[in-house]
Amino acid sequence: MCAVCGCANTAPASAGHEHDHPHPHEHAHPHKHKHEHQHEHQHEHQQVHAHHADHVAVDADSGDMHYGAGPARVSVPGISQARAIRLEQNVLAENNRHASCNRHSFAERGMLALNLVSSPGSGKTTLLCATIAALRSRANELPVAVIEGDQQTSFDADRIRATGAAAIQINTGKGCHLDAQMVGAALPRLYPGAIADAGGVLFIENVGNLVCPALWDLGEAAKVVILSVTEGEDKPLKYPDMFGAARLMVLNKTDLLPHLQFDVARCIAYARRINPHIEVLQLSATSGAGMDAWLDWIMAAHGGVPQASADGNAHSILRAPDPLAARIAALEAELAALKRQGGAA
Amino acid sequence: MHEMSLAGSILRVVEAAAEREHFVRVTLLRIEAGALAGVEAGALRFALEVMAQDTCLQGARIDIDTPPAAAWCMQCCTSVAMLARGDPCEHCGNAQLQPTSGTELRVVDMMVDDI
Question: What is the pLDDT of residues A10-21, one digit of tens each?
Answer without folding.
Answer: 544 333 343 333
